[in-house]
Amino acid sequence: MPERILIDTDPGIDDAMAILLALASPEVQVEGLTVVFGNSADVHLLARNASAILELAGRADIPVAVGAASPLVRAYHGRGSVVHGENGLGGVVLPKPATPPVSQNAAQFIIDTCVANPGQITLVTLGPLTNIALALGIRPDLPRFVRRLVMMGGAVAAPGNVNPVAEANVHNDPEAARLVFNAGWEITMAGLDVTMQVHMDDDYLGGLGNLGNRAGRFVWDVTRFYVAAYHSFGYADMVVHDSCALMAILRPEFFTSKFVFVDVETTGELTRGQTIADWRRQYGHKPQTHVLTGVDEIAFKQLYYERIAALL
Ligand code: BDR
Ligand code: CA
Fold first, then answer.
1. Which residues have CB atoms below 5 A from the ion given as ligand 2?
2. φ, ψ dihedrals at 298, nearest 5°
3. Which ligand is nearest to the CA of 7?
4. Whole-structure pTM value
5. Residues 6 or more apart whose Cβ sits within 8 Å of residue 196
6. What would be the CATH architecture of the domain defined by 3-309?
7. Percentage of the residues of the chain whose pLDDT score is greater than 90
8. 15 lines ligand 1 (CB under 6 A)
9. 165 CA distance to ligand 1 centroid (A)?
10. How far is the C-alpha of 3 from the C-alpha of 19, rounded, in Å?
11. Does pLDDT of 61 surpass 90?
């Protein structure tokens, strides 16, 4: 039986790549996409991207729900457009989606889907954790209904990508992330500790572009801006963030991990948005998070390639 997943996302170039991986994978069944601000401040733009990606893959049947347009407490100061372009997809323009989002907002959609299917749904988060936190605000018992939560976010030993200690998804809404880490569910965390280990160079991406299908062509096109951004930061290749969360579901054996209590700093002058792993159990809390620490990069890219090749 495939694992039933709800993907909360801010698409986003690497979100788009992860959504395609999910759609191509028989191990999971995508029940819906819920959209959050993050890679752009315009959540409606990101929701249109979500629908357009689904339509590109021939999956307009999957519902999209629009969610939070801003963080819980402080204003959005993200710089998503530097990495993802003004339209979130590196300037690639997909056909205007024919299917509108559902009328429920993302938090309600998450609640309704999980409560109607107790123990069945895995939440996969690829953006700031605001929608999940809002859902918890309405239904603090949500974790009782959820199978598990798998996130791309945070950095416990690796340096941050927004500042020396904070990763963008957590930094974009640290209060929301803190609520999610302390909600009482088991979390798998694909943070920068592991995502920075998966590189795709232009030879590999060119191979995807030449597969002869539109998904592969789209991955090539959409990564042009993203690769250029990584070059401008001094990296030789792009790294793959959001697909790591999906791959951790498809092939957990590709990863190594440590089970540890993780919390989020929300007030520090220099450390706001930092994810802290309590390696020595000094806080006295039970571990709740499987922090991914290593990955078989070659096996990862091989499977990613095969899955994109299988799409339209
Ligand atoms: C995360 O931030 C976003 O820019 C990416 O889509 C990814 O989810 C990486 O820090
Ligand atoms: Ca993302």
1. 10, 12, 15, 126-127, 242
2. -70, -45
3. 2
4. 0.98
5. 158, 239
6. Alpha-Beta Complex (3.90)
7. 99
8. yes
9. 15
10. 15
11. yes
Active site residue 241: yes
Give me 60's structure tokens: 């307009």
- Residue 206 has which token pair? 């060119």
* Three-class secondary structure assignment of the chain: CCEEEEEEECCCHHHHHHHHHHHCCCCEEEEEEEECCCCCCCHHHHHHHHHHHHHHCCCCCCCEEECCCCCCCCCCCCCHHHHHCCCCCCCCCCCCCCCCCCCCCHHHHHHHHHHHCCCCEEEEECCCCHHHHHHHHHCCCHHHHEEEEEEECCCCCCCCCCCCCECHHHHCCHHHHHHHHCCCCCEEEECHHHHCCCEECHHHHHHHHCCCCHHHHHHHHHHHHHHHHHHHCCCCCEECCHHHHHHHHHCHHHEEEEEECEEECCCCCCCCCEEEECCCCCCCCCCCEEEEEEECHHHHHHHHHHHHHCCC
CA dihedral 180, 183, 184, 186 (to 10 degrees): -10
Contacts of 1 (CB under 8 A, 6+ apart): none
Residue 27 has which token pair?
């191990």
Q: Of 84, 171, 199, 241, which one is the catalytic site residue? A: 241
Hunting for tokens 């000094």 — which residue is that? 282
User: What's the average model confidence in pLDDT over 204-214?
Assistant: 98
Look-up: residue for tokens 């950095």?
Answer: 155
Q: What is the pLDDT of residue 77?
A: 86
